[in-house]
Amino acid sequence: WLPSLLLKKYHGGHVVIRMALGGATNRPFYRIVAAYNKRSRDGKCIEQLGSYDPLPNIYNEKLVGFNYDRIKYWMGCGAHPTKPVAKLLGLAGFFPLHPMTVTEAERRRKAALTESKAENLSIVTLCL
Amino acid sequence: MAALRVARGLFRSCRGVQSVDYDARALFLGARRPVCTSSSDDISGCEGADGVRKAQFADAEVQEILTRITGLDLERVFKPIKRELKPPKYKLMTDAQLEEAVLRAREQAGKLLKMPLVVPERQPIDDVLAEDTILEGMDTAKHVFTDITFSTPHRERFIVVREPSGMLRKATWEERDRLIQVYFPKEGRKLTAPPIFNEENLKVMFRQDRHEEVLNHCLVQFEPDSADFKKVHTLAFEHLEQEAKYEVLRSTRFFGPLVWYLVTRRRVDGLLTDMLQRDRLQDALSLVRLFNLVHPQSDCALQAVQQQATGLDLLKIFADCESQKSGFIKLALQTYEHSGTDIVLTAPQSKPGISAQHLQTTHGELGIPDYRSF
User: Which domain of life is it from (chain A) (predicted)?
Assistant: First the structure.
């Protein structure tokens, strides 16, 4: 009971699947990692489950690696994925699409539309 | 206390390691020298148009014939490769130990001469998993998702691409090869093909007779069923066939694939004449037998089966039916017949210069005619 609860190392914490930042200045690189909730972001993790490179390469690809087998294990153990990880997994097809991905896409399209409209207006005013 | 922490750390790291389940294919793809396994896809289908079973590259009989034709020249197989300079080691051995060492060298040479696979070219992948047009405009770059599970074979790995248009598709073969090299790098393989595999550079290498180097490099760089691999091999074999320089690949692991390439395209004449010139009668017979196995419906094969021919008769039938240089083959056969019981039916390992000399001393003026005159 209480003594055994207090002797447990992590109580009240839980495992999360999140991104740990690495890389260099102006060059981020994320490791997708299973870690305890209260640990520091880049500190000791339980296991590395993959990586994410946010900068596109010469083939215009953003490389993401997932160890699906272990992700399934940790999700089965009750790990919580964070929002960016859930978004990436949704894009990969492993999870259903995250609603924020859809919302972001719509917002970007609207912004692009208003931008093009503003451009057209400015061109028209310049011509006149 | 520290020991406990170390032990806990070790335990934690061990938990991540899974039992690696290598099946034959994973071993083949991971190993440097791919070994012949039975290929599931056939070149022209298991049965020809007439329902007769055609011989495939991976059949035991075909493999045996090809290994026999390749020969085992120890000097050639263990040719010194460019390595860092070390002082030579000398060993003092008795005759028995020397024989044992030679025997072990032969076994090692046999392993080194294992032929690379000849498999049909791979079909391009164009599988679309999902079309989510609501995601359009999400990003300007593609996302490529690779499955990094250590124990899955590379052929079965999931590699999907999410395009900026929102389409989720499987990655193409080139993308797959590149990404597998990124996450599971293989020694000697580059991400992009080195410029030696451009046509002009290949031609330069062929002119210098360095086919073996190029083909070894190609084996390491490309997968056996990729288009580039097939292209390099085709160019190399075509060049050898045109120049009739079969000796370049004679005791290497690429001789089998070369012979298979020629036999499937029915252009065996050059090789046959070369073998007869070098007194390799047994090899010539194996070649004709292989031809009959691969093309069981050809005139040559049917006649051979009818007459139950063996030895020189096989060659005669082949010369009649299939070859364009029948004149030279018949002449060579006549020389062998005239020499009577002096035929040594085991293929001599000596160099062609020595065998010509040997022929002149034992058979007088019956030297080997120049086949180019026919």
Answer: Eukaryota
Contacting residues for B132 by C-beta, under 8 A, at least 6 apart: A97, B166, B167, B168
- DSSP letter at B146 equals E
CB A99, CB A105: distance < 8 Å: no
Write out the two tokens for A16.
């999360």
List of chain B residues whose C-beta atoms are within 8 Å of the C-beta of residue A61: 141-144, 161
**CA–CA gap between residue A4 and residue B249 (Å, rounded):** 74
Q: Is B167 on the interface with A (CB under 8 A)?
A: no
Phi and psi at B320, nearest 5°, equal -65, -50
Counted across chains A and B, CB pairs separated by less than 8 A come out at 85
Closest to B222 in 3D by CA, of B177, B253, B184, B180: B177
**Backbone phi and psi for residue B86, each to the nearest 5 degrees, phi listed first:** -130, 150
Name B146's bridge partners. Answer: A65, B159
Cβ neighbours around B233 below 10 Å, total? 23
Whole-model pTM? Answer: 0.71
For chain B, list residues with pLDDT below 50.
6-7, 9, 13-51, 341-374
pLDDT at B52: 57
The mean pLDDT of chain B is 75
3-state SS track over B356-367? HHHHHHHHCCCC
* Per-residue pLDDT tens over the stretch B77-94: 777 777 778 888 898 999
Residue B132 and residue A91 in contact, taking contact as beta carbons nearer than 8 Å: no
From B72's Cα to the closest Cα of chain A, the distance in A is 46
- Cβ–Cβ of A62/B130 closer than 8 Å? no
β-strand partners of A30: A21, A52
Residue of A nearest to B166 (CA): A91
| Secondary structure (DSSP) of B70-113 | H---HHHHTPPPP------------HHHHHHHHHHHHHHHHHHT
Supply the ipTM of this predicted assembly.
0.89
Spatial distance between the Cα atoms of B331 and B197, rounded to a whole number of angstroms: 42
Q: Residue A15 in contact with residue A79, Cβ under 8 Å? A: yes
Q: B293 in the Ramachandran plot: left (φ > 0), alpha (ψ -120 to 50) or beta? A: alpha
Q: Do B137 and A88 touch (CB under 8 A)?
A: no
User: Could you tell me which residues come within 8 angstroms of residue B54 by beta carbon, excluding any fewer than 6 positions away?
Assistant: B42, B44, B45, B46, B47, B48, B294, B295, B296
Asked whether A48 and A35 are in contact (CB, 8 A), the reply is: no
Convert the pLDDT of each residue in A16-74 to its tens digit: 999 999 999 999 999 999 999 999 999 999 999 999 999 999 999 999 999 999 999 99
